Every structure is written in C-alpha cells, then in structure tokens.
Amino acid sequence: MSRYIAAIDQGTTSSRCMIFDHAGQVIAVAQKEHEQIFPKPGWVEHDPVEIWQRTQEVIAIALEKSGSKPGDIAAVGITNQRETTVVWNKLTGLPYYNAIVWQDTRTDVICNELAKDGGQDRFRAITGLPLATYFSGPKISWLLDNIPGLREDAEKGLALFGNIDSWIIWNLSGGPRGGVHSTDVTNASRTLLLNLATLEWDKAMLAVFQIPPAMLPPVFPSSGIFGYAKGTLEGVPIAGDLGDQQAALFGQTCFLPGEAKNTYGTGCFMLMNTGTSPVPSQSGLLTTLGYKIADQPAVYCLEGSIAIAGALVQWLRDNLKLIEKSGDIEYLARTVEDNGGIYFVPAFSGLFAPYWRNDARGVIVGMTRYINRGHIARAALEATAYQVREVLDAMETDSGVRLTTLKVDGGMVVNNLLMQFQADILNVPVVRPQVAETTALGAAYAAGLAVGFWANFDELRSNWGKDREWQPGMDDSSRSRLFSGWKKAVSRTLNWIE
Question: Is the confidence at residue 1, as pLDDT, over 60?
C-alpha cells in the first residue's frame, strides 16, 4: 500500500519536492535554487537543463529524507511557474534557447504591434487574457523569429513547446526515450493560444502568432494519469498538473464559487473560483482556468497577477545588499513606525493587474533626508499589500462578491508585519493555513484524486486547518489616506518607456 503522494513544485527561483501523507501533512521537503539570468534590461531567463537537474536532485533528497522508495509513492503531481516558455528538440532533448521567464518584457514590440489593430483586449473574448508580455504565445513567436533553424524544425515537428510543466513531465517520463509531451488546462490557459470555451488550441490565435500547431502539447485535465516516471521515481504515475497559482487555489480547497486565495511568492497572485462558466473581466483581471478534474466540467477563476512581491525583497537582498537574508526584512522594517512618507512601486517588469502597462518602471517617491533603511524596507513590504488591495477591489467589481476573509499562502506569509498591514489595508481578516506551502499541496491533491489516494473534495477539505488569523485594526481615514498616496505613486511609474 502506497503511503504518500509526492509533488514537484518548480518555481521561479527554486525547484522543490515535497512528500505528503494522507492528512496533507508534510513528511519531507527538499529545495534548491537555480540561477536567474538577466542578459539585458527587461530580459529574464532560466537554464532549462539546470532546472531539470535541480528537480532530479530534490526528488532524490526528499525520498531519502522520508525514507521512501518509489513503491511508497502513490502518485506524483507537478506544479510550475506559469508562462515561462521552453522550446526543445524532441530527438536530443536539448533546449534551443534558455527558458524565457514570465517576467521577461522583450516581447513588448510584438504585443504593441498586435494591439494597434483592436487594442490590448482584442483577444480577451477567446482567451480571457489581454495582450501582454506576460504570456507564452508572444514568447514562442519571439523564439521562432530569432533562433536560427528553429522555425524549420518546428514545421517538421522536431521542436516541442511547453511551459515548465511540460518540460518536467516530458523529462520525468523518459525525455527523448518515450517522454510524454502534455500540459493541463490551467497551463494552457496562460499562453494566449487556448480557446476558453472549447479548451483546445485556437487555430486563429496560432495564426496570429505564426506558431506551427505541431509544437504544442495535447491539453489534458489537471487531475488524471499523464504517464509514468522513469529514473528515481520509476513507475510512479504522473497524475496531476496545475500551474502554481491554480495549484494553490486547489490546495487551499477553494472548491466553491466565491472562494479566493492569495499567494505571496516571487509575484503575488489572487484567484477567485467563479464556477463552471468563465466570467469576463471589465476591471483588468484575467479570466483563466482554475482546474479540471478528470471528465468533470472545468472550473474557471478570475485572477489578479502582480509581477513583483517577494522578488522585491530578493532585489533588496541581492542588488542593494540592504539585508543579508530575506527573513531580515521584517526586523529591519520594524525599526521604524511607518514608511516615513515614501512609497515603493516595484514596476520592474511593467505593471500587471489591474493596469497591464508595459511602459511602467519602478519608482520610490516621497524621499526626504529623514528616510533610512528601515523606511525603505517597510515601504517594500507595504508595496505588496497595496498591490493586493488594487486587485481585490477589481475582483469584487467583476464578480459582485464581497470577500469576507482572505486565505493566504506562499513564502511571504511568515512575515507577520506584512500580514497585519494586509488585513489593515483590505479591512478584511487574513487567514494563514497550517500548511502554508499550498502550491505543492494542490499538485499532490490533484495527483492523489486521480489514483484514489483521496476519494473526494470532502476528504481534502477536512485536511485544511487554520494556523493564524490577522484582524484589521486601522481606522478608515488612515486606510483611505495611505491608499490614496499609493495610487498617486503608481501614476508616477507610467509612460517611462517610450
């Protein structure tokens, strides 16, 4: 009898393997960072070969830590940084170029050119998405136009595209020796190529981006058997695949329309379950897939995507050397009572929801000689909370649902100062679950449902438990004054790039 479910969580800055028991508790975890490559301003890349190497390493370490053999693992689920685009040769298994990361802005020329005819929202009715550098479609187009020989190989069926989930599944199931080329509905919905209604690749969108259909993986439900692992996890069913934010929605057991979660990671992502019909956004949000379980109807969600959250803390650590490790940010921010009148808008990759402005760049405003390191640290944390407030306002406008509680997860939720400020600026309670790493848990749940390790949603709900709750404690006038200052600061970021 298999005792555990494994999850591979391939994120923007690291790869992780987590092993869970039937109660959804963490049995073992292994994590390794990979290099962030910045060839030019606005360009962000990863080495896919390094990512696969790190993935294999963390699988082996997690098995060793848990004392498990492949026979102890009922299934493995995959969750991944979405939109990050890899194209590789199916015979050699080698990428044609580095992975182009979701934060990368090199495709702004492609997006701006397409927006001249019909505007930024010209494809929303088909894809649920605005034209933006964020998504995979323009990235594939850039690769086809700029990598010698790639378009020819793509036409011949030799070049395979995938978001990172497809790259991991293909390698995990054998790579050039029989690897399965596949993706799920959630990852496919992040490409600007999927038709939201049919859940199939849209021929008109492929024509717009001049992408040969043979490059694309077949689209499957999020929960179901994709194939079987080779190597360290030999014979284990690969049975779950969800983009990281949808995995967190699933791990937070947001199975009913109106239930929402917010993940604080490299970026920040709020998703609200809207049921089995897509809800068009009028407020700058994304209409996207939430999950699809086997042959059940697909579940959709509204999403507010924020490009820079934890990445700002990482930037203060690595680029400015303001702190030694990310966890030091809270201590430094607590050395001051407030932000000293400054705002830090981290539009390093433009602004995502609800603005979708590729021309924006980061600013710190309100600087005086009074300002010190503590104020900058505090303003950096507050930036995440303000961005979440903007997304929540848009979500309530689109859905007509007033959120009563925000479920939170991800690496930043250990920061108590940030969580309290988040509750204050939203004026709703913020709740952290006992298992904060719900992204990996959601992938595990999807895989476990597929093989009968868990029977149904009720079993998964029974695993969810509250760790801590923050109640809002700010008066209305302070909340309004602070948020008004943030909106003014955002206006200063716009039109920076011609």
Answer: no
The whole-angstrom separation of Cα 215 and Cα 226 is: 18
| Mean pLDDT of the residues in the chain | 93
> Which among 243, 189, 185, 236 is positioned nearest to 440, based on CA atoms?
243
Query: In the chain, what is the straight-line distance between the N-terminal and C-terminal CA atoms, in Å?
Result: 61
Buried/exposed 44-77: b ≥16 CB within 10 Å, e otherwise = bbbebbbbbebbbbbbebbbeebebebebbbbbb
CA 72 to centroid of chain Cα atoms:
29
Max CA pair span of the chain: 65
Tell me whether the omega of the peptide bond preceding residue 354 falls within 30 degrees of 0, making it cis: yes
The amino acid that residue 371 corresponds to is I
- pLDDT for the residue 265: 85
Q: Which residue has the tokens 């695949």?
A: 241
Helical segments of 290-363, H only: 310-318, 328-333
What H or E segment, with its residue span, contains residue 466?
Answer: strand 466-470
**Digit-coded pLDDT (tens) for 166-209:** 999 999 999 999 999 999 999 999 999 999 999 999 999 999 99
63-68 contacts at long range (C-beta below 8 A, 24 or more positions apart): 63/19, 63/28, 63/232, 63/233, 65/19, 65/28, 65/29, 65/30, 66/4, 66/19, 66/27, 66/28, 68/3, 68/4, 68/19, 68/27, 68/28
161: nearest Cα among 50, 264, 87, 100: 87
Give kind and range of the element (H or E) at residue 203.
Answer: helix 203-209
Model confidence over 396-447: pLDDT tens digits?
888 887 888 899 988 899 999 999 999 999 999 999 988 878 899 999 999 9
Burial of 292 (0-12, 13-18, 19+ CB in 10 A): buried
Cβ atoms < 10 Å from Cβ of 491: 13
Q: Estimate the crossing angle of helix 476-491 against helix 373-399, to 10 degrees.
A: 100
